[in-house]
Amino acid sequence: MHMTFTVAVAGASGYAGGETLRLLAGHPELTVGAVTAHSNAGTLLGAHHPHLRSLAHRELLPTAVEHLLGHDVVVLALPHGASGAIAAQLPDDVLVVDLGADHRLVDPAAWQEFYGSEHAGTWTYGLPELLRVSTVDSQVEYTKQRELLASTRRIAVPGCNVTAVTLGLQPGVAAGLLSTDDLVAVLAVGYSGAGKSLKTHLLASEALGSAQPYAVGGTHRHIPEIVQNLQVAGAGDVTISFTPVLVPMSRGILATATARLAGGAEGTTLEQLRSAWSDAYEGEPFVELLPEGQWPTTAMTAGSNTALVQVALDRRAGRVVTVTSIDNLVKGTAGGAVQSINTALGLPQVLGLTTEGVAP
Questions:
Q1: Is residue 135 helix, strand or coil?
Q2: pTM (2 decimals)?
Q3: Long-range contact pairs involving 207-214 (C-beta distance under 8 Å, separation at least 24)
Q4: 64 Cβ partners below 8 Å, 6+ apart?
Q5: What pLDDT does residue 1 have?
Q6: Residues assigned a catalytic role
Q7: pLDDT (tens digit, 9 = 90+) per residue, 333-346?
Q8: Of 1, 229, 298, 355, whose CB has the highest number of CB atoms within 10 Å?
């Protein structure tokens, strides 16, 4: 019996909601149900996303629970702090996917420190490729997060920067090759990562021809999430200096993350590093270690659900350097969400997603 699933998207007028709708519009098994918004309710979707031609005629309903009920899947593309109250009113058997931060963190104290509000609870983390390293009866076991996604009805989609840094570093962490007490990550981030609200520093006149750092000095809200992921991948204590920089492009993240070699791993060769990274992502449809000598660029991944990773050994500095490229709106947000939705619904994880980028 052929069956399609209906998906409601709350917060449909923003970048994340719009990108989710773009992917849903081309998905063979998912159909778009209600589209809702807050201040833009009552307007047509095409006024906000004129590129979504097949959905441009749809009216944005108010983001209220009655409009979200009756769907198989509800995607919440809402501001941080707004999804908990709505999710609490949705039935347990509905697949609810939060693109915001509300349900990503396990530690309520970390949530309160970085977000300053009450923690809404923890959902299944929506990064299928996240490495899970655990010790059972003194045997080390390696699994991946997708095993947990297959049986959940509540998914917390990762932060976009978090996805890039995690995918870059986790193979070395899981293999015991990296020390995690002195991690450094600097990211070039496209402006869509800053959201769609009107702010002076986001105007084209301020942004074009300029690169500007933000959330400097350990204040970025993605830091506790990166720490959490690397601990799941087998790290003990994690200390990371994390600095994102807005650069004049609309999409994309290029994350350069470095780590010192772990004690006892000083004699590690580049070949050993490369095999750890290629083993970690063997068979993964959307994460790829590039051939030696080829470096990721944001242009390679624009419009695709691909993460491209490269690893190098800086022998003089005693550091491993990883560079990871993703499209922040696809693999970093909506594509990661659709991949997780596919897994939770028992569909092939690649359905409705592409590895082909858009260039030039």
A1: strand
A2: 0.97
A3: 207/246, 207/248, 208/248, 209/248, 210/248, 211/245, 211/246, 211/247, 211/248, 212/245, 212/246, 213/243, 213/244, 213/245, 213/246, 214/244, 214/245, 214/246
A4: 36
A5: 52
A6: 160
A7: 999 999 999 999 99
A8: 229
